[in-house]
Amino acid sequence: MTAPREDLGRVRCSLVGNVPAGSWQTCQLTYTSGFAGIDDTGSLKLVMRYATDCGTPQFDDPSAANYTSAVASNGAHLALRWDVKDNVRPWGKTLHVKVLQGYLRQGETITITLGDTTGGGPGWRMQTFAEKTLELRVLVDRFATYVYQPLEKQPEFRIVAGEPVRLVAVAPSLVSPGRRFDIRWRLEDCWGNPVGRSRKMAHQGFPEAGCHTVEVRDEDTGLEAETNPVRVCVDQPYGRFWADLHGQSEETIGTGTVEEYFRFARDRAFIDIASHQGNDFQITDAFWQHLQVVTAEMNRPGRFVTFPGWEWSGNTGLGGDRNVVFCSEGGAIHRSSRALVDETAAKEPTADSVEELFDLLEGTRPDPMLIAHVGGRYADLARHREGLERAVEVHSAWGTFEWMLEDAFGSGYRVAIVANSDGHKGRPGASWPGASTFGSYGGLTCVLAEKLDRQSVWEAYRQRRVYATTGVRIGLDVVTDDGMPMGSVIDGGGATDPPAFRVDVQGTAPIERVEFRNGTEVIGVQRPWGSGDVGDRVKLLWRGATVRGRGRQVTWDGRVQVPRNRITDFVPINFHNIEKSCRRVGTNELAWESITTGGVAGVITTLARPRHGTMTIETPHGRFRVDLARLGPRGRGWDLGGLGQRLTVCRLPPPDGPRDVSFVFRPRPEQLHDGDNPLYVHVVQEDGHMAWSSPVYLVR
Q1: What DSSP string describes 292-307?
Q2: For a Cys-Cys bond, which of 104, 238, 509, 693 suits 687, CB 3.0-4.6 Å?
Q3: pTM for the structure as a whole
Q4: Domain spanning 245-473 has what CATH number?
């Protein structure tokens, strides 16, 4: 006989109401046992959703952060254990409290203190992203059978944004001369949460062609920012629209409702195009239908374009992660499995391998598009269907994955290069990584479409007229001398004179270099400055991953020293997690904690004597010395194994350098080979942000 729910006991939480994101708190949970109590070796589970990035509980050092204790009212011994993945998804993060050498009767209590400060610790660091209802779910194993039952009423409170520390202003990337346009802007706290309402201001426009930015100031806080580059020109066949097609909400493993997800993309991130990508094995037929109702309602041509979709989340051995996006509502869902849904709630036939997925989707209507990507699992690009799988995601909040391009181009595939957030924190289009396993700011895709409507945007993806960025709105144009845009296929025949390419870049920060590539081979480099322009700044950069799949994080905790010299200033690169800082520890020394998951991080130093002595870098991967007198703009580098793990040091020109670069590049015949030559541009800014154009495929 099953006991009534009220017999399971109850729990009371000391945290209620609004709690600032990322703040230090003490959270006391008091469980009062029900009719059966808890038997000897029975236990409680306190479980949290996968997406949360609250501080990890620890039980050994009362003076340190996130110290957690537990006590039973009757003196029973309690054993505590933390496991990041020990409950059914998405409630995987688990604090175990096991009763030993005793038991609990009805009415006796267990008090868990997350962020116990009695030993001098600062408390428990709260989740870094805003959420209307952060739930701490308590499960009880009363009979020591390892069968857990959830309490009827669970503790929850609201995570709200902290104080504003920056302003983010967004303008259209392309406008006509004399045309008025709107600038939208928001305030953010130190973790990237929007503070207060979004705002809009009208701009009268610019009378002549050129590239401009606009300064925006919030009078209440005094915070200022400049917009992304606004390119003013005439006779452009395509607009520039910004997309994030990849993220999840709380109906699967993310945060917030699907309605809140799309509203954030439109009203907070100010992007133009969005899709939702829930893990298929968590999507019921009812939610799939609801999602399509939402995308249809949110789609507004000329303002905001939405596409329905889902993620095929098959094991890597079965093909790995693919986004499935449809041009309109009405598409089927073919799950990789029914791992977390009942067959009665998920009736469509499954696609048990990626080949089955290809077969079930190819030639169907509405038109589907697959995007290969890296999440927890990664797409195996040895398994591909040309024309159906149209793009590769080179960057997301999980990291940067240029090895995906190497796989695709090495196999002769014709794909677009895109970037998305793959965010789980309810912030599509403006996806800060927070303090968990995500290592990068989420990406964006710029879509070169005739109009902002589904048909035009879909055609742009189909024609590969898109480019990827690491989340900033870099302007990028790559066009052949006869007007063929990125994504085109050109029959080069036996021509000995390859086409010339006009490249125009408008950066959001000073540009370090622009690479022209054939596949993954760099065949040309353009810098907006020469070797004689370098000054007193030295850039130290680290990058890479350990493996393709889960557990790819690389630890780079270290320091840099310049003996008998001084570091007069420094600028950290991609230190998005404020708990992992780059800081001064002396006049000639910096120290940091940093990880990469395929992307880049680093620091730009300014030296009192830029060509004097040596620079010494210490990391877990070794100790490296650089002779500053011999260091130039091309720098030095060390390959450190793993998956693209690399440390580089180079010299930079003075700050506030050129942000715009325009040039013409013509590949030499010997730089081309028979078959497809995927010719594209890779932009690298000083601040670590990057962009990739989709290739022009020159066939010889």
Answers
A1: HHHHHHH-BTTTBEEE
A2: 509
A3: 0.96
A4: 3.20.20
